[in-house]
């Protein structure tokens, strides 16, 4: 017995013989009778297979162990519970019978061992291993034995060999890695990977910042004057601190009265910033003008700053139609007014351009200096298509109006005649009919 991984146990001849004598009994009755006779019981799973083998129905059985040792000790005691009176009866039996049984078993076992040794150990049957099998078979057996030993017992030699193999493998891997790293070339670093190649901050972002700054300050970006260039206005020069470098115009401030005494000639006078009417009126009109009242040249919308108010934006304003069918809209206004290039609104929509509420454009303007030189300045313009959102003070900065013709588009504008005519609008600003 001992199937399915259970420890093996062997049935004695007494148990097998008792089973054959009581084979006609049912298994529970057989178990009780075997317990009464103190004989090991053949278990129910083994009974059918054993009886089939003993009756000759099968020639062999999977429960037969041909490698079982000849020396088999006393088998397990029966696991059938006995009554209390039977236990007491066994306890009252003398020990002489047990000792006699043990002695007989020992003698029988010794006799079997002696007979087995005499039948096995015969010197005439001993032959050389090389005569019994070939060298290849012997080598194969040795290899199997060594493999079995290595799998069961791990020696210090095996540890040394394994460590040596691992060390050699690591050394080889380090050499290969060093060779690979030596041929590597750094293409991107953690710094260069964060830098954008499609955006130029000096061209895009800085230009936007300058436009916003010019819009907030309400003036054009400052231009660096060319060296040895005449100042734009004497009043502006007087307000500025005296430069450390030499300036040939400084001496005229002190010698002007001495050289023109009695003639009242303004050596620093200029027609710059004056209208044609004031020039043609003659000296009588010019007498009323004083150098202190001469304003700094600025765009037309900034010629009359509101008095006694905080400094506001002076950026000129251009109004365009809000209709999507207009030739100029917020989509193509910058291309037309700044780049002087007409792009239809439908094409701008196909390009994915977003419509903004207002935009800021930059126009370059050549300005004549008193010395005869020309300076190119950049003037920002604010382009809007919702004039009703303008503040009252913003209308003084409107310099151009693009209109389509219907009179209803001027509803709510401040520059309208009592009859609703927009004539006064085009008198104060440049009008363009689309």
From TrEMBL:
Basic and acidic residues composition bias: residue spans: 249-259
Annotated segments matching region Disordered: 216-259, 281-314
Domain of life: Eukaryota
GO annotation (BP), single: transcription elongation by RNA polymerase II
Gene Ontology MF terms in the entry: RNA polymerase II complex binding
Keywords of the record: Nucleus, Transcription
InterPro entries: Cdc73/Parafibromin (IPR007852), CDC73_C (IPR031336), CDC73_C_sf (IPR038103), Cdc73_N (IPR032041)
Localisation: Nucleus
Biased composition (Polar residues): 229-238
Bias (Pro residues) ranges: 294-308
Keyword check for Transcription: yes
Protein name per the record: CDC73 protein
Native species: Lophotis ruficrista
Lineage: Eukaryota, Metazoa, Chordata, Craniata, Vertebrata
GN (gene name): Cdc73
């Amino acid at each position: 017995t001992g199937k399915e991984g259970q420890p093996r146990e062997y049935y004695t001849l007494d148990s097998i013989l008792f089973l054959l004598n009581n084979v006609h009994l049912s298994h529970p009755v057989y178990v009780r009778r075997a317990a009464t006779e103190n004989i090991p019981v053949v278990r129910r799973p083994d009974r059918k297979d054993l009886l089939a083998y003993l009756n000759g129905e099968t020639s062999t059985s999977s429960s037969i162990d041909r490698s079982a040792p000849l020396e088999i000790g006393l088998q397990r005691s029966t696991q059938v519970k006995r009554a209390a009176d039977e236990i007491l009866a066994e306890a009252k039996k003398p020990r002489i019978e047990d000792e006699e049984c043990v002695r007989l078993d020992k003698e029988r076992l010794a006799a079997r061992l002696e007979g087995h040794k005499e039948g096995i150990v015969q010197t005439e049957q001993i032959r050389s291993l090389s005569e019994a099998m070939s060298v290849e078979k012997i080598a194969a057996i040795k290899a199997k034995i060594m493999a079995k030993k290595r799998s069961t017992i791990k020696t210090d030699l095996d540890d040394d060999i394994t460590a040596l193999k691992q060390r050699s493998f690591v050394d080889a891997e380090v050499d290969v890695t060093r060779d690979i790293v030596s041929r590597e070339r750094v293409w991107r670093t953690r710094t260069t990977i964060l830098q954008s190649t499609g955006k130029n901050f000096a061209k895009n972002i800085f230009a936007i910042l300058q436009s916003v700054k010019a819009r907030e300050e309400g003036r054009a970006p400052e231009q660096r004057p060319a060296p040895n260039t005449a100042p734009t206005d004497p009043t502006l020069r007087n307000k500025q601190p005296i430069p450390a470098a030499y300036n040939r115009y400084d001496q005229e401030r002190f010698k002007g009265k001495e050289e023109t005494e009695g003639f009242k000639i303004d050596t620093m006078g200029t027609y710059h910033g004056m209208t044609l009417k004031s020039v043609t009126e003659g000296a009588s009109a010019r007498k009323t003008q004083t150098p202190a009242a001469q304003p700094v040249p600025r765009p037309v919308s900034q010629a009359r700053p509101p008095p006694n108010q905080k400094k506001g934006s002076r950026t000129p304003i251009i109004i365009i139609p809000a209709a999507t069918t207009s030739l100029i809209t917020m989509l193509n206004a910058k291309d037309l007014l700044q780049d002087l290039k007409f792009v239809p609104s439908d094409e701008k929509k196909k390009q994915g351009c977003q419509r903004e509420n207002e935009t800021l454009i930059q126009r370059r303007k050549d300005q004549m200096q008193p010395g005869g030189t020309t300076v190119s300045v950049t003037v920002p313009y604010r382009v809007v298509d919702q004039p009703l959102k303008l503040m009252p003070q913003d209308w003084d900065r409107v310099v151009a109006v693009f209109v389509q013709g219907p009179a209803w588009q001027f509803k709510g504008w401040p520059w309208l005649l009592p009859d609703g005519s927009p004539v006064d609008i085009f008198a104060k600003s440049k009008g363009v009919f689309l």
